[in-house]
Amino acid sequence: MKNNQQRVSAEAIYAQFPPLSINSIFHMFLMFIGFGLLVVLVFSQLNSSNYNFQSISISSSTFSLLPSTTPTNPTNPTTLPSLESTLSSPPPPPPPLLVPPPPPASSSLSQESKNRVNNGAGSKEFVKPPSANHGMDDKVLLHKASKVPRVSQQASKKVAFLFLTKWDLPLGPLWEKFFKGHEGKYSIYVHSDPSFDATALPASSVFHDRYIPSKKVKWGEFSMIEAERRLLATALLDVSNERFVLLSEACIPLTDFSTVYNYLMSSSKSFVEVYDQAGHVGRGRYSYRMRPHIQIEQWRKGSQWFEMKRELAIEIVSDVKYYTLFKRHCKPGCYADEHYIPTYVHMKSGRSNSNRTLTWTDWSRGGPHPLKLLRTDVTIEGLKSMRQGNCEYNGRSTDVCYLFARKFHPNTLDRLLRFSKGALGF
Ligand SMILES: *[C@@H]1O[C@H](CO)[C@@H](O)[C@H](O)[C@H]1NC(C)=O
Protein backbone atom coordinates (compact mmCIF):
# COMPACT_ATOMS: atom_id res chain seq x y z
CA MET A 1 0.00 0.00 0.00
CA LYS A 2 2.74 2.29 1.01
CA ASN A 3 5.00 1.13 -1.95
CA ASN A 4 2.15 1.60 -4.34
CA GLN A 5 1.60 5.15 -3.22
CA GLN A 6 5.32 5.94 -3.61
CA ARG A 7 5.33 4.55 -7.14
CA VAL A 8 2.32 6.64 -8.10
CA SER A 9 3.92 9.90 -6.87
CA ALA A 10 7.22 9.02 -8.62
CA GLU A 11 5.38 8.46 -11.88
CA ALA A 12 3.62 11.80 -11.48
CA ILE A 13 6.96 13.57 -10.99
CA TYR A 14 8.46 11.85 -14.04
CA ALA A 15 5.44 12.90 -16.05
CA GLN A 16 5.96 16.54 -15.05
CA PHE A 17 9.78 16.54 -15.25
CA PRO A 18 10.95 13.91 -17.72
CA PRO A 19 14.67 12.96 -17.47
CA LEU A 20 16.96 15.08 -19.70
CA SER A 21 17.88 13.54 -23.02
CA ILE A 22 21.44 13.79 -24.51
CA ASN A 23 19.99 16.05 -27.12
CA SER A 24 18.62 18.64 -24.68
CA ILE A 25 21.84 18.68 -22.62
CA PHE A 26 23.86 19.48 -25.78
CA HIS A 27 21.34 22.23 -26.58
CA MET A 28 21.81 23.85 -23.16
CA PHE A 29 25.63 23.63 -23.52
CA LEU A 30 25.47 25.55 -26.80
CA MET A 31 23.26 28.23 -25.25
CA PHE A 32 25.69 28.60 -22.28
CA ILE A 33 28.66 29.09 -24.62
CA GLY A 34 26.70 31.62 -26.66
CA PHE A 35 25.68 33.67 -23.58
CA GLY A 36 29.27 33.70 -22.29
CA LEU A 37 30.50 35.03 -25.62
CA LEU A 38 27.84 37.75 -25.54
CA VAL A 39 28.87 38.88 -22.03
CA VAL A 40 32.56 39.05 -23.03
CA LEU A 41 31.64 41.09 -26.09
CA VAL A 42 29.50 43.59 -24.17
CA PHE A 43 32.19 44.18 -21.51
CA SER A 44 34.95 44.75 -24.00
CA GLN A 45 32.72 47.20 -25.86
CA LEU A 46 31.95 49.22 -22.70
CA ASN A 47 35.56 49.36 -21.55
CA SER A 48 36.71 50.75 -24.87
CA SER A 49 34.36 53.71 -24.49
CA ASN A 50 34.13 55.21 -20.98
CA TYR A 51 31.90 57.95 -22.22
CA ASN A 52 29.06 55.47 -22.53
CA PHE A 53 29.18 54.87 -18.79
CA GLN A 54 29.08 58.52 -18.12
CA SER A 55 26.08 59.20 -20.30
CA ILE A 56 24.18 56.39 -18.59
CA SER A 57 24.99 57.82 -15.18
CA ILE A 58 23.90 61.36 -16.15
CA SER A 59 20.64 60.23 -17.65
CA SER A 60 19.79 58.24 -14.54
CA SER A 61 20.58 61.21 -12.28
CA THR A 62 18.06 63.38 -14.10
CA PHE A 63 15.34 61.28 -12.51
CA SER A 64 16.44 62.17 -9.02
CA LEU A 65 15.50 65.37 -7.16
CA LEU A 66 19.08 66.03 -6.16
CA PRO A 67 20.58 69.11 -7.75
CA SER A 68 22.14 68.08 -11.02
CA THR A 69 25.84 68.57 -11.34
CA THR A 70 28.17 68.84 -14.26
CA PRO A 71 29.72 65.48 -15.13
CA THR A 72 33.03 64.64 -13.56
CA ASN A 73 36.06 64.35 -15.74
CA PRO A 74 35.15 61.33 -17.88
CA THR A 75 38.78 60.22 -18.24
CA ASN A 76 39.15 59.80 -14.49
CA PRO A 77 38.40 56.09 -13.90
CA THR A 78 38.02 56.46 -10.10
CA THR A 79 34.85 58.50 -10.47
CA LEU A 80 33.21 55.92 -12.73
CA PRO A 81 30.41 53.96 -11.11
CA SER A 82 30.17 50.26 -11.93
CA LEU A 83 27.66 49.12 -14.48
CA GLU A 84 25.70 47.42 -11.73
CA SER A 85 25.40 50.52 -9.47
CA THR A 86 24.53 52.72 -12.42
CA LEU A 87 21.67 50.54 -13.50
CA SER A 88 20.22 49.22 -10.25
CA SER A 89 21.03 51.58 -7.33
CA PRO A 90 20.10 55.29 -6.96
CA PRO A 91 22.59 57.75 -8.44
CA PRO A 92 25.58 58.59 -6.27
CA PRO A 93 25.41 61.87 -4.30
CA PRO A 94 26.65 64.81 -6.33
CA PRO A 95 30.38 65.26 -5.94
CA PRO A 96 31.43 68.43 -4.09
CA LEU A 97 32.31 70.29 -7.25
CA LEU A 98 31.51 73.83 -6.04
CA VAL A 99 33.83 73.39 -3.10
CA PRO A 100 37.55 74.00 -3.26
CA PRO A 101 39.59 70.87 -2.52
CA PRO A 102 40.13 69.35 -0.05
CA PRO A 103 36.45 69.43 0.90
CA PRO A 104 35.77 69.67 4.65
CA ALA A 105 32.67 68.19 6.28
CA SER A 106 29.65 69.47 4.36
CA SER A 107 27.80 70.84 7.42
CA SER A 108 30.63 73.07 8.64
CA LEU A 109 31.21 74.11 5.07
CA SER A 110 27.70 75.37 4.46
CA GLN A 111 27.83 77.26 7.78
CA GLU A 112 31.12 78.84 6.76
CA SER A 113 29.84 79.99 3.41
CA LYS A 114 26.64 81.26 5.01
CA ASN A 115 28.68 83.48 7.35
CA ARG A 116 30.67 84.77 4.45
CA VAL A 117 27.52 85.75 2.60
CA ASN A 118 26.07 87.40 5.68
CA ASN A 119 29.23 89.38 6.31
CA GLY A 120 29.29 90.52 2.74
CA ALA A 121 25.70 91.71 2.84
CA GLY A 122 26.13 93.30 6.29
CA SER A 123 29.09 95.43 5.30
CA LYS A 124 27.02 97.01 2.54
CA GLU A 125 24.53 98.27 5.09
CA PHE A 126 26.29 99.10 8.37
CA VAL A 127 28.63 97.54 10.83
CA LYS A 128 27.19 97.17 14.31
CA PRO A 129 29.31 99.24 16.70
CA PRO A 130 31.43 97.40 19.24
CA SER A 131 29.69 96.79 22.56
CA ALA A 132 29.74 99.81 24.87
CA ASN A 133 30.62 97.54 27.76
CA HIS A 134 34.34 97.32 27.03
CA GLY A 135 35.37 96.22 30.54
CA MET A 136 38.44 98.49 30.68
CA ASP A 137 39.33 100.64 33.68
CA ASP A 138 39.71 104.41 33.21
CA LYS A 139 43.47 104.32 32.87
CA VAL A 140 43.55 101.71 30.12
CA LEU A 141 40.52 103.22 28.39
CA LEU A 142 41.88 106.79 28.29
CA HIS A 143 45.28 105.60 27.14
CA LYS A 144 43.72 103.59 24.33
CA ALA A 145 41.43 106.46 23.33
CA SER A 146 44.34 108.92 23.16
CA LYS A 147 45.96 106.71 20.49
CA VAL A 148 42.99 106.35 18.12
CA PRO A 149 43.11 107.68 14.53
CA ARG A 150 42.35 111.41 14.37
CA VAL A 151 40.42 111.14 11.15
CA SER A 152 37.25 109.08 11.27
CA GLN A 153 36.39 106.42 8.71
CA GLN A 154 35.26 108.35 5.66
CA ALA A 155 32.68 105.89 4.35
CA SER A 156 30.28 105.77 7.28
CA LYS A 157 30.64 108.77 9.57
CA LYS A 158 28.52 108.67 12.68
CA VAL A 159 27.34 111.00 15.40
CA ALA A 160 28.02 109.69 18.90
CA PHE A 161 25.22 110.51 21.35
CA LEU A 162 26.63 110.49 24.87
CA PHE A 163 23.98 110.27 27.57
CA LEU A 164 25.23 111.28 31.00
CA THR A 165 22.36 110.20 33.26
CA LYS A 166 21.61 110.01 36.96
CA TRP A 167 19.59 106.82 36.60
CA ASP A 168 17.24 105.78 33.78
CA LEU A 169 16.12 107.53 30.57
CA PRO A 170 12.51 108.62 31.16
CA LEU A 171 12.36 110.29 27.73
CA GLY A 172 13.86 107.20 26.04
CA PRO A 173 10.73 106.53 23.90
CA LEU A 174 11.09 109.96 22.23
CA TRP A 175 14.73 109.23 21.43
CA GLU A 176 13.78 105.78 20.06
CA LYS A 177 11.44 107.55 17.65
CA PHE A 178 14.16 110.05 16.74
CA PHE A 179 16.73 107.36 15.91
CA LYS A 180 14.36 105.00 14.08
CA GLY A 181 15.44 104.28 10.51
CA HIS A 182 18.86 105.92 10.82
CA GLU A 183 20.89 102.88 11.85
CA GLY A 184 24.53 103.18 10.84
CA LYS A 185 24.59 106.96 11.23
CA TYR A 186 24.69 107.16 15.01
CA SER A 187 26.21 105.46 18.04
CA ILE A 188 24.78 105.67 21.54
CA TYR A 189 26.67 105.52 24.84
CA VAL A 190 25.07 105.81 28.26
CA HIS A 191 26.81 106.54 31.56
CA SER A 192 24.51 105.89 34.49
CA ASP A 193 24.76 105.08 38.15
CA PRO A 194 26.93 101.93 38.57
CA SER A 195 24.05 100.24 40.45
CA PHE A 196 21.58 100.83 37.60
CA ASP A 197 20.61 97.53 35.97
CA ALA A 198 20.52 98.03 32.20
CA THR A 199 20.10 94.34 31.39
CA ALA A 200 16.31 94.59 31.56
CA LEU A 201 16.24 96.69 28.38
CA PRO A 202 14.72 94.79 25.44
CA ALA A 203 17.09 93.86 22.61
CA SER A 204 14.98 96.00 20.27
CA SER A 205 15.82 99.19 22.19
CA VAL A 206 18.45 101.54 20.75
CA PHE A 207 19.84 101.74 24.29
CA HIS A 208 20.30 97.98 24.59
CA ASP A 209 23.95 97.09 25.23
CA ARG A 210 24.92 100.79 25.09
CA TYR A 211 25.73 101.28 28.79
CA ILE A 212 29.41 101.90 29.44
CA PRO A 213 31.28 100.84 32.60
CA SER A 214 30.30 103.68 34.95
CA LYS A 215 31.27 105.13 38.30
CA LYS A 216 29.38 107.17 40.87
CA VAL A 217 28.88 110.78 39.79
CA LYS A 218 28.19 113.64 42.18
CA TRP A 219 26.56 116.59 40.45
CA GLY A 220 28.80 119.64 40.38
CA GLU A 221 31.87 117.66 41.44
CA PHE A 222 34.89 116.53 39.50
CA SER A 223 33.49 113.01 39.07
CA MET A 224 31.28 114.57 36.38
CA ILE A 225 34.36 115.40 34.26
CA GLU A 226 35.62 111.87 34.76
CA ALA A 227 32.29 110.52 33.50
CA GLU A 228 32.35 112.84 30.48
CA ARG A 229 35.84 111.68 29.57
CA ARG A 230 34.78 108.06 30.04
CA LEU A 231 31.97 108.62 27.53
CA LEU A 232 34.19 110.43 25.05
CA ALA A 233 36.94 107.81 25.29
CA THR A 234 34.53 104.93 24.77
CA ALA A 235 32.99 106.63 21.74
CA LEU A 236 36.43 107.39 20.28
CA LEU A 237 37.24 103.69 20.10
CA ASP A 238 34.77 103.46 17.22
CA VAL A 239 36.71 105.06 14.36
CA SER A 240 33.54 105.96 12.49
CA ASN A 241 32.38 108.38 15.20
CA GLU A 242 33.04 111.90 13.90
CA ARG A 243 30.92 114.19 16.12
CA PHE A 244 30.18 113.84 19.84
CA VAL A 245 27.13 115.24 21.63
CA LEU A 246 26.74 115.24 25.41
CA LEU A 247 23.14 114.93 26.64
CA SER A 248 21.31 114.28 29.89
CA GLU A 249 18.18 112.25 30.62
CA ALA A 250 16.27 115.55 30.61
CA CYS A 251 17.32 116.49 27.06
CA ILE A 252 15.22 116.20 23.91
CA PRO A 253 16.03 116.61 20.21
CA LEU A 254 14.44 119.73 18.66
CA THR A 255 14.42 118.47 15.08
CA ASP A 256 14.59 115.26 13.04
CA PHE A 257 17.66 113.05 12.83
CA SER A 258 18.71 113.98 9.27
CA THR A 259 18.68 117.70 10.09
CA VAL A 260 20.79 117.08 13.20
CA TYR A 261 23.18 114.82 11.29
CA ASN A 262 23.71 117.24 8.41
CA TYR A 263 24.03 120.25 10.70
CA LEU A 264 26.80 118.56 12.67
CA MET A 265 28.62 116.80 9.83
CA SER A 266 28.74 119.93 7.66
CA SER A 267 29.97 122.19 10.43
CA SER A 268 33.60 123.20 10.36
CA LYS A 269 33.46 124.01 14.08
CA SER A 270 32.73 122.43 17.43
CA PHE A 271 29.89 123.73 19.58
CA VAL A 272 31.37 124.27 23.00
CA GLU A 273 29.99 127.29 24.76
CA VAL A 274 32.83 129.54 25.85
CA TYR A 275 32.54 132.96 27.42
CA ASP A 276 34.33 135.19 29.86
CA GLN A 277 32.28 136.33 32.84
CA ALA A 278 33.13 138.70 35.61
CA GLY A 279 31.81 138.26 39.15
CA HIS A 280 31.67 135.41 41.61
CA VAL A 281 30.02 132.85 39.25
CA GLY A 282 32.64 133.57 36.55
CA ARG A 283 36.20 134.65 37.18
CA GLY A 284 35.39 134.46 40.87
CA ARG A 285 35.69 130.65 40.64
CA TYR A 286 39.27 130.82 39.42
CA SER A 287 42.02 129.72 41.77
CA TYR A 288 45.37 131.48 41.69
CA ARG A 289 46.92 128.10 42.48
CA MET A 290 46.47 127.30 38.78
CA ARG A 291 49.17 129.82 37.88
CA PRO A 292 51.31 129.91 35.81
CA HIS A 293 49.64 127.33 33.58
CA ILE A 294 46.24 129.02 33.61
CA GLN A 295 45.98 132.79 34.10
CA ILE A 296 42.80 134.50 35.21
CA GLU A 297 42.49 136.14 31.75
CA GLN A 298 42.31 132.65 30.26
CA TRP A 299 39.62 131.42 32.62
CA ARG A 300 36.36 130.64 30.80
CA LYS A 301 32.84 129.45 31.50
CA GLY A 302 30.23 127.62 29.45
CA SER A 303 27.45 125.08 29.41
CA GLN A 304 28.43 121.53 30.25
CA TRP A 305 26.34 120.23 27.30
CA PHE A 306 28.83 120.26 24.43
CA GLU A 307 29.00 119.05 20.86
CA MET A 308 32.48 118.52 19.48
CA LYS A 309 34.56 117.23 16.61
CA ARG A 310 36.65 114.08 16.80
CA GLU A 311 39.96 115.99 16.94
CA LEU A 312 38.87 117.96 19.98
CA ALA A 313 37.49 114.83 21.69
CA ILE A 314 40.91 113.17 21.33
CA GLU A 315 42.60 116.27 22.80
CA ILE A 316 40.26 116.23 25.80
CA VAL A 317 40.81 112.55 26.63
CA SER A 318 44.59 112.95 26.12
CA ASP A 319 44.94 115.96 28.39
CA VAL A 320 46.78 115.30 31.64
CA LYS A 321 48.13 118.75 32.53
CA TYR A 322 44.93 120.82 32.76
CA TYR A 323 42.86 117.89 33.94
CA THR A 324 45.19 117.47 36.92
CA LEU A 325 45.13 121.23 37.70
CA PHE A 326 41.32 121.27 37.73
CA LYS A 327 41.07 118.11 39.76
CA ARG A 328 43.37 119.61 42.37
CA HIS A 329 42.16 123.22 42.48
CA CYS A 330 38.57 123.35 41.21
CA LYS A 331 36.70 122.21 44.33
CA PRO A 332 33.03 122.93 45.23
CA GLY A 333 32.37 126.58 44.81
CA CYS A 334 34.17 126.00 41.51
CA TYR A 335 32.22 123.71 39.19
CA ALA A 336 34.59 121.88 36.89
CA ASP A 337 31.84 120.87 34.45
CA GLU A 338 31.27 124.57 33.65
CA HIS A 339 34.94 125.56 33.41
CA TYR A 340 37.34 122.75 32.52
CA ILE A 341 36.35 122.16 28.89
CA PRO A 342 35.55 125.85 28.09
CA THR A 343 38.90 126.98 29.50
CA TYR A 344 40.77 124.17 27.76
CA VAL A 345 39.09 124.88 24.41
CA HIS A 346 39.73 128.62 24.71
CA MET A 347 43.43 127.98 25.38
CA LYS A 348 44.02 125.14 22.93
CA SER A 349 41.62 125.23 20.01
CA GLY A 350 39.51 128.37 20.23
CA ARG A 351 39.64 129.02 16.52
CA SER A 352 37.92 125.77 15.58
CA ASN A 353 35.11 126.45 18.05
CA SER A 354 31.84 128.30 17.55
CA ASN A 355 31.77 129.27 21.24
CA ARG A 356 28.04 128.57 21.43
CA THR A 357 26.00 125.62 22.64
CA LEU A 358 23.44 123.70 20.59
CA THR A 359 21.40 122.85 23.67
CA TRP A 360 18.58 125.26 24.47
CA THR A 361 18.14 126.00 28.17
CA ASP A 362 15.80 128.43 29.90
CA TRP A 363 17.83 130.58 32.26
CA SER A 364 15.25 133.36 32.29
CA ARG A 365 14.34 132.82 35.91
CA GLY A 366 17.95 133.30 37.00
CA GLY A 367 19.64 131.40 39.78
CA PRO A 368 21.95 128.39 39.62
CA HIS A 369 19.44 125.98 38.03
CA PRO A 370 17.62 126.37 34.73
CA LEU A 371 13.86 126.13 34.41
CA LYS A 372 12.51 122.59 34.38
CA LEU A 373 9.66 122.18 31.92
CA LEU A 374 6.57 120.35 33.13
CA ARG A 375 3.79 118.69 31.13
CA THR A 376 1.71 121.82 30.58
CA ASP A 377 4.75 123.85 29.50
CA VAL A 378 5.05 121.68 26.39
CA THR A 379 3.28 123.13 23.35
CA ILE A 380 3.84 122.77 19.60
CA GLU A 381 4.60 126.49 19.19
CA GLY A 382 6.88 126.48 22.22
CA LEU A 383 8.91 123.53 20.91
CA LYS A 384 9.22 125.07 17.44
CA SER A 385 10.49 128.37 18.84
CA MET A 386 13.25 126.68 20.83
CA ARG A 387 15.30 126.07 17.64
CA GLN A 388 15.20 129.74 16.76
CA GLY A 389 17.85 132.34 17.47
CA ASN A 390 20.37 134.53 15.79
CA CYS A 391 23.71 132.84 15.46
CA GLU A 392 26.58 132.00 13.16
CA TYR A 393 27.01 128.76 11.22
CA ASN A 394 30.11 128.18 9.04
CA GLY A 395 30.74 131.93 8.89
CA ARG A 396 27.15 132.88 7.97
CA SER A 397 24.29 134.02 10.14
CA THR A 398 21.38 131.64 10.61
CA ASP A 399 18.23 131.38 12.70
CA VAL A 400 18.56 127.63 13.37
CA CYS A 401 20.67 127.77 16.51
CA TYR A 402 19.58 124.91 18.77
CA LEU A 403 19.24 121.20 17.99
CA PHE A 404 18.58 119.98 21.55
CA ALA A 405 16.80 121.32 24.61
CA ARG A 406 16.56 120.79 28.36
CA LYS A 407 15.34 120.30 31.04
CA PHE A 408 12.22 118.22 30.52
CA HIS A 409 10.41 116.53 33.41
CA PRO A 410 9.47 112.84 32.84
CA ASN A 411 5.78 113.83 32.83
CA THR A 412 6.31 115.68 29.52
CA LEU A 413 6.82 112.41 27.64
CA ASP A 414 3.25 111.77 26.45
CA ARG A 415 2.92 115.31 25.10
CA LEU A 416 6.33 115.15 23.45
CA LEU A 417 5.39 111.91 21.72
CA ARG A 418 2.10 113.40 20.54
CA PHE A 419 3.62 116.68 19.31
CA SER A 420 6.86 115.28 17.88
CA LYS A 421 5.54 114.93 14.31
CA GLY A 422 4.11 118.45 14.17
CA ALA A 423 6.72 120.27 16.24
CA LEU A 424 9.94 118.33 15.81
CA GLY A 425 9.52 116.71 12.40
CA PHE A 426 9.68 113.04 13.38
C1 LIG B 1 35.63 131.63 19.61
O1 LIG B 1 36.52 132.08 20.57
C2 LIG B 1 37.90 131.98 20.19
C3 LIG B 1 38.70 132.35 21.38
O2 LIG B 1 38.48 131.46 22.43
C4 LIG B 1 38.15 132.83 18.98
O3 LIG B 1 39.48 132.68 18.56
C5 LIG B 1 37.22 132.40 17.87
O4 LIG B 1 37.36 133.23 16.75
C6 LIG B 1 35.77 132.41 18.33
N1 LIG B 1 34.95 131.83 17.30
C7 LIG B 1 33.93 132.47 16.74
C8 LIG B 1 33.19 131.72 15.68
O5 LIG B 1 33.59 133.57 17.06
Can you describe what's shown?
It is a single chain. With 426 residues, the chain is α/β, with parallel strands linked by helices. It has a domain at 137-351: Spore Coat Polysaccharide Biosynthesis Protein SpsA, Chain A (Alpha-Beta Complex). The chain contains 14 helices and 9 strands. Strands 2-1-3-5 form a 4-stranded mixed β-sheet. Strands 4-9-6 form a 3-stranded mixed β-sheet. The radius of gyration is 41 Å and the shape is globular. The termini are far apart. The relative contact order is 0.09. Bound molecules: 2-acetamido-2-deoxy-beta-D-glucopyranose. 2-acetamido-2-deoxy-beta-D-glucopyranose binds at residues 274, 346, 350-351, 353-355, 392.
Query: Helicity range of the residues?
Result: 25-40%
User: Could you give the order of strands across the largest sheet?
Assistant: 2-1-3-5
The H/E string reads HHHHHHEHEHEEHEHHHEHEEEH
- How many helices does DSSP assign? 14
What composes the largest sheet?
Answer: 4 strands, mixed
Please tell me what the overall shape is: globular
End-to-end CA span:
114 Å
Q: What value does the average pLDDT take?
A: 80
Structural category is: alpha/beta
CATH topology of the domain at 137-351: Spore Coat Polysaccharide Biosynthesis Protein SpsA, Chain A
Name the CATH architecture of the domain at 137-351. Alpha-Beta Complex
Bound molecules: 2-acetamido-2-deoxy-beta-D-glucopyranose
Low-confidence stretches: 1-19, 39-125
Percentage beta strand: 5-15%
CATH domain class of the domain at 137-351: Alpha Beta
